[in-house]
Amino acid sequence: MAHKSWLDIPIDSHFSLANIPFGIITTPVSSSPHVGIAIGNYALDLSVFASSSGFSECPAITAHLSVFSQPALNDFAELGRAVHREVRHFLQKVFVEKSKFSPAEGFTEPYDRGLFLLKDVKTHLPFRIGDYTDFFVGKYHAQTAGAMIRGIGHALHPNYTHLPVGYHGRASSVVVSGTSIRRPHGQVMENPAAKVPKPIFTPSKRLDFELELGAFVCKANKMGEPVSIKEAEENIFGLVLMNDWSARDIQGWEMVPLGPFNSKNFGTSVSAWVVLVDALEPFRVRGIENENDVFPYMREEKKENVYDLNLEVELTSMTNSIRVSPCMLTNDAAKSGTPTTITRTNGKNLLFSFPQMLAHHTAGGCPMQVGDLLGSGTVSGTEPDTSSGSMLELSANGKKKIQLHGGDERTFLEDYDTVALKGWAGGEEGALDLAREGFYILSSIGTEKSTRYLLAEKYLGTVAPDGLL
Length: 469
Fold this sequence. Notes:
Radius of gyration: 22 Å
Number of helices: 10
Largest sheet: 8 strands, mixed
Number of strands: 26
Strand content: 15-25%
């Protein structure tokens, strides 16, 4: 049974007392980014709350209150999981029914002690990200995509079930929900069936999303000192939803022999609100069964090492309702179309867990830093037509049409389309939300838009016809 709050929290709110996600915000009274949490329809500015003695009865954080005035979560994250846990539990007590912080004694005026409506705050990139690694542990996605390239019998490489396959991403193009994404240009095969390969340089015509989970590191290790599997879980701060935008036509030409490059590095979007690992503890489940025993350095004591997270993707077509410059697009315009849920899957569809990814990443002595980002890879289910985490799978690499409300069809993303990623755990009461991301996709230039995020927030990007701007 979820605890009741003196704050008016809608029963179906994904920012319930069970959640308490952390992020970076600016408010109507401060343009300096600093740490906040989301609760119901509100955000609590922890910098203001701390300066008004709000944490006086939380000894775990009283010596470190300056971390809440920082423009990134790195300093708070570095304090460790035990401190994160204490701060979250204390904040739950702040908002529980009959708390001494209730309006009679605590929050008496608008903006008092840092409480703002979510619609009045702006969210920012939650971490200062030094490095970003994208893994490929969504087995069902790997099987489907691999079969398209190499045939069913060779869909997975021999190493796939022995280690979490990954590659180094581009940290500089990781952006927060609300940031527009340009449609990339690159080399693509003019005629994939040609005997003599002949690439052309052109805007991508096969722009895709990838539904992923992301995890932020909260503890550094020294170079040459691997993180043991027993320690790895304590080194992870929390989870976000992540969209690793992908240009499939560019990817097809460039990826041999070293893997994706320009087809991936033009943009990766992450949630603004980070859900602590402790908040996800009740939703632990077993992941995909591995046919091989992993090596001891990745062998976890807990068999329930992934999370039961409901994941969905909505696609909204704007092509019939908006014929304007992308610079004129607004949030209201983004809502004018009818969204179509094009896939439903679950966060448990992973072959390896984030602690296993971290243990493997550092097995050779690689030093990780606080704020480093790990991506799960595309999370797909067992039914390619209805539970895939990418349009590559949903459209069978462009061979099948995805039906949308209003009669529109898609194989890949078109100009003015909006993609919304959703993730949540639990039932209606006391649920916690991983994110709701929305994106416009732009080919040339984008304007930043801000909308409500759930466990994360909404990403808005825009895709305009090439040369329109």
